[in-house]
Amino acid sequence: MNKTVMHLLNTAEQRYLETAEQQQLWQHFHAMTNRLQVYEQLRTQEAQIFRPVVRQMPNTDEATAMAALRDWVGALRGAALAMVLDDPEFFEHRVGQWLQARPRSPLHTTLGQLLHAQLKTVLGAQGWPLLAPYWEQAQRCLGCL
Amino acid sequence: MNLETLLNQPVPTDYFAPGAYVQGDLELGTLSNRRGNRLVAIPEHLVRGIYAGLEQEIGKATPLVLQRCGRHWGQHLFARLAEELAEYYGKPLAELTMQELVYCLSRCWQVHGWGQLHLDWSYSHRGLILVSIQNSPWVQPQSGQSQPAAYVEVGVLEVLFRQLTGREVQCVQIACISQGQEGNRFLIGLPEQVQPVVDWVQSGMDAATILQRLRS
Questions:
Q1: What is the pTM of this model?
Q2: First CA to last CA across chain A, in angstroms?
């Protein structure tokens, strides 16, 4: 869970939250609504996001291509959920360390760049900034930053 | 496999991810892993109490009994890993890549609180794997043992690697936190490769000298 929210909830164990603290919670929940909309977009448009990327992918053997694709699918799903929770540690613990231990091919970098461009286009100026920090985390874990 | 098939599947990542792996049922007062197998948090003082009790009751046989306990644990650990990882990753344990397997093992150690496990293959030319465990809960640091004393770990590693490699490997401990070392270190290999190391350890040789000899 997001650290700020966790801290607020722990505070509320002992006393009522003060107005400013409640305000912080409201902000978090409002922001979460927006993040959930981006998540929904990623979930429902997963195939539309990946199809053009696969079409532009350089020719390579199927096993290498599937391994790289699988890693990026897992990375994007993890980044999407971490974005909803607004919790970089969630990404790090659930997916990040696993991705860092995966064998990498040059195709990982190419796919990362193609996906980056595609995500920016699909999510647009409103949605992309919400995913961007978590996407960067994913890129770092797969050695693309 | 094509893209559509891939996208319609769950993409497994980290089986032992903390938070997802350990779950608790407060009402029942139980902890379990993500597959529902029960986990138990053992207090450090209970481990020490068991060691002290064994020492009092069976004296010199304690190391053997502890090693036997470790072997028993190793057998069950392997069976559990094989079943759980196969189910989660959708393929038998034997089909996991070496990287995936090593990652899972070290995460398994981490998430259960058994310390940080690290495998070093740089002694494979001597037919040996070097295993290091930092922050082991099985031995009391600086307790002044004359010989390495992580008997439970020797047992569990020996059986685990027997099952993983399908060979009758042996495990010998070469460094121990009970003797003031910063971690426990073990060498695993076939008996003919391990025996000289056993002799060196018994003669009181330290880990650095042993590893130096193996490198030369």
A1: 0.91
A2: 26
What average pLDDT score do residues B148-167 get?
96
State the burial class of residue A113 (Cβ atoms within 10 Å of its Cβ: 0-12, 13-18, 19+). middle
What are the Cα distances from residue A105, in Å, to A60, A64, A102, A137, B36?
11, 8, 10, 18, 36
Tell me the nearest-neighbour CA distance from A35 into chain B, angstroms: 22
Residue ranges of alpha helices (H) inside A45-61 are: 46-56
**Using the 8-state DSSP alphabet, how is residue A18 labeled?**
P
Q: Cβ of A94 and B20 within 8 Å?
A: yes
Disruptive mutation site among A97, A99, A118, A137 for chain B (greatest number of B CBs within 10 Å): A97
Give the confidence band of B2 by pLDDT, cuts at 50, 70, 90.
confident
Instruction: Using DSSP, state whether A90 is helix, strand or coil.
Output: helix
End-to-end CA distance of chain B: 48
The C-alpha of A46 sits at a distance from chain B's nearest C-alpha, in angstroms, of: 8
pLDDT of B194-203, one tens digit each? 999 999 999 9
Pairing verdict, β B30-33 and B38-39: antiparallel
What's the complex ipTM? 0.86
